[in-house]
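hey so i finaly got around to running the thing on ABC transporter permease protein from Pseudohaliea rubra DSM 19751. pasting the sequence first so u can double check i didnt mess up the copy paste, my clipboard has been acting weird all day
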Amino acid sequence: MNRDRPMATPSRDVARFAWQALAGYPVRTLLMLIAMAIGVGSVVVLTALGEGARGYVTGEFASLGTNLVVVLPGRTETARLNPGAMFGETPRDLTLGDARALTRSSRVRRVAPLNVGSVTVSHGPRSRDVVMLGSTSDLLPVRHWRMARGSFLPVMASDRAMPVAVIGQTLREELFGAEGALGEWLRIGDRRFRVIGILGSRGRSIGVDTDETIIIPVAAAQQLLNTQSLFRILVEARSREDIEPVRDFVEAAIAERHQGERDVTVITQDAVLSTFDDILGALTLAVGGIAAISLAVAGILIMNVMLVAVSERTAEIGLLKAIGATPRQIVTLILAEASLLSFLGALLGLALGQASALGLRLALPMLPAYPPPWVIAVVVTVAMVTGIVFSVLPARTAARLDPVRALARR
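ok and heres what it spat out for the 3d tokens, dont ask me to read them lol
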């Protein structure tokens, strides 16, 4: 056995040495922990904010319905420009006939024509300016809404202007107060409508607050708005696999009715969600990358402070080398100190980030601000690597100290 060969430093002794080194300079250690924690916490909370935004947008579009295909009048090209608009042409209107034609496919479950307008609704001396939706009985299942009381629009021909209305909860309270609303009459413009149902509260969804909305038959809405055109046509496919075939069918069916002109824009729910998911995913990575810069700043701080620490502990390092510590063991001790510091800072940063994300969720309940699981693993790894990499220079500086000169503090 070679007795001149230095013994390896046990990992328990290395950990004890690193802990004692950090505990011996509490103010310096606290400042480095705070720097690392701010970097880690920033990454966690900003990625949580990005994921929350993505979850919110996904939820909003999911609330529109399932397997949805939306038909808009006018052709939107890839460049977002309608060529006809350059020459003063207006897009061909969508009509109730177009909507009825879209029910002729076995892949289509429901079709809900839609008109939207702003109207004044009154009952007795009370009146409100609200959003009016004109549609058919299929709108309720297509949008996945529910009724609180009464019934939704009855099943009838789409061109029948029956004087019935479904109102939101807030509108009911403001027009009828403590009185019962079902069966009562209200006025929209110069026409009277009987309230047959109260919508369940769903809040705001893609700009429409169902609590402050009135829904009437689409033919009645067209009469009130003095138009024969539709704002949109909502088409529900029978399954997710049917979405693309339904999209192709819609374009072909409308083109056949419009003398071969493909003059509508057909948007699938999956395409919109995919686009937003890509955009918000990139945004999450971007803000996470920006926040990660603070980790590099924390690493530079660790390097500077460790260089100062090496100069302050020259005698201690000289003593270690005098009793047989090799340069490799000195480097191991310094890197262990930096690793422990980075790990504790990362844990503190995770706690800070999670607390901030919780604060966001409490302040904005509609925003599911949860950091993605991969961020936690990545940010701890990056913090550890940053601390170690930026401590290599101080460690090598300590390893090159001459023990005699170090003990003499020279």
